[in-house]
Structure formats: C-alpha cells, structure tokens
Amino acid sequence: MTQVPGMETSAISVLKRAVELDQSSRFQESLVCYQEGIQLLMDVLKAVKDDSKKVHYRQKIKSYMDRAEQIKVHVNQLKEEGKYHEQIRIADDATGYSYEVLFRPYVTEGVTEVWVEDPYIRHIHQLYNFLRFCEMLLKASCKVKRIHLLTSQEEGDNSSQQASALSELKQSLQSQDVCLDLQYSTFHDREIRFDNGWIIKIGRGLDYFKKPKGRFSIGYCDYDLRQCQETTVDIFHSKHTKTL
Fold this sequence. Notes:
This protein is of the alpha/beta class. The chain has six helices and seven strands. Strand 3 (146-151), helix 6 and strand 4 form a beta-alpha-beta unit. It starts with a helix and ends in a 7-residue tail after the last strand.
C-alpha cells in the first residue's frame, strides 16, 4: 500500500500531459500518454484494498480508455484519408525535446526501415546528432533493420572526417544487425520517414539543439535538458511510403 501514492502521482502526471496534448490537437502523442497513464492507473487499482477507491479508479480508467479509443478512431480515419497533419512548435531555449521524446509516438513496434533526408549531417556535432538518432532507434520497441541516410557531402579539409565517422557508424550498426545505406546529394529538404507511414519534417532537421554552454554544463549529455533552437515540427502520415 505504501507504493500507491507514488504510483498514483506518476499516473496523474502522465494523464495530465495526455490531456494537455489532446487539447493541443497533438493526438498521436496524447494517445501514447493516455495508454501509459491508464496502465499506471491499472497498477494502482490492483494495489488498493478499499472498495470505494476501487470504484473511483475503475471509473477514471473507463473515462480515459473511452477518450483514448475516440482519439485512435479519429487518428486512424485521418490516416486512412491521407489528411493527418500535426504541428509542434519548439520555442527558442525550450527543453524536453530529445529524439526519444519527439519520435517515440511514431516509432511503433512494426518499424523496420527508416529514411533520413538531411543535408546537414556533415560537421562533428551533426554527425553525433545522427549517431544519437540511430541509438534512439535501437532502444525503441521496434526492430529496425535498415536506415537510409541521404545527406550532402562535406568539402575541403572536413570531408575525410565525415566519411570516416559515417563509415565507423555503418560498421557499428552492422554489428547490431542494422544496415546503413548512405547516399550523397545536393538538396535542401529535411524529412524523416518510417515504413509505418509516419513522416516527420523538422525545420532544422536533426540539428535543432543549441551548443551547450560548456562540457560540464547541464544538457551536455542529456538531450532532454539541452536547450533548443526555435523550429517547427510537421507530422504527416502516408499509406504509401516512398523510397529514396
């Protein structure tokens, strides 16, 4: 029983976030939070002994499950009609937008292939960004088997650094049974696509984090705490995922 208050606090926090996202029309994100919060409430329900509290939690769970189901139907309908569009605005100096947070609602269990079009995977911090993105995919619930990267080729003295870094990453991914397909082109579009149909377009591509103030500053290691540049994230869904 001693764990119940902590479990309940966690559930309330997640469900509050779900409602906020829901009210902001960020439906896919809110759905993930509703599902997580409902599971936490169900754990609370199993732990409480008081019958009146059990009735209270059952009612709450039913209410949130009904709303989650409504959202699921709405999202599926928009996806079916090819009309799904959601926009997230990241404010200047905002935190809490690591790749895990931003992409988690869209990297679902069935994802096996990812396409990244970003002309700026060239400088050392941009290469580290792409590495972090790949690490996020490996930690997700899906089993990614192939990552396609289309970027622009660095020129001059830094060209060998880019080639060396991507070659090393390719080998490292191979050891995890993931194939990195690398192509170079001159273009300006930024887009990330998953083979479940989700398409994420970030105004700044993966390079939306600010440089940390120092190597021992908060946010240097944990990107959830790293300040961001102002940018927009547009989310679409297509039943026909194009290939590069």
